Amino acid sequence: MIDRRNFLKKTALVATGMVIGGSAKASASMDAFPAGIIYTKKNPGKWAKKVGSHAPKVNVEGKNVTIHTMHPMSEIHYIVRHTIVSADGNVLGEKTFYPSDKEAISTYELPPDYKSKLYATSFCNLHDFWVTEFSI
């Protein structure tokens, strides 16, 4: 069986790499993510009715970034993981969730004066991998 943590890390790196390594037009847009593999608020694919509870919401306060997926947590349906990934593909932070967690919320502290495009990811055990792009 594939180690879920390594799979999710690699998926986050591949997802951002597709944007970074693509054409100039692709790297400027979330449209570069492959449909049916990675979902965004703008491109939810078959999960269009799931955007509100699956696309990660990002709040930035100073050097702290909070990712919140507005998703119920239960034994059969829950958010598995959040990551925050830099534009060059480095995973800056990650948090694994469990069905017993009350909510899918994570906070990360960035270095002082950090400025970059970033990606917040959220992985649902039933509705796949979601990404929200944001800048600091």
Automatic annotation (TrEMBL):
UniProt keyword Cytoplasm, yes or no: no
Any one GO molecular-function label of the UniProt entry: oxidoreductase activity
Annotated GO CC locations: cell envelope
Localization in the cell: Cell envelope
Signal peptide range in chain numbering: 1-28
Desulfoferrodoxin ferrous iron-binding domain ranges (all copies): 53-132
Pfam families: Desulfoferrodox
Record SUPFAM superfamilies: Superoxide reductase-like
Record's keyword terms, sorted: Iron, Iron-sulfur, Metal-binding, Oxidoreductase, Signal
InterPro entries the record matches: Desulfoferrodoxin_Fe-bd_dom (IPR002742), Desulfoferrodoxin_Fe-bd_dom_sf (IPR036073), TAT_signal (IPR006311), TAT_signal_bac_arc (IPR019546)
Assembly and oligomerization: Heterodimer of a large and a small subunit.
Name listed for the protein in its UniProt record: Twin-arginine translocation signal domain-containing protein
Organism from which the protein derives: Candidatus Desulfatibia vada
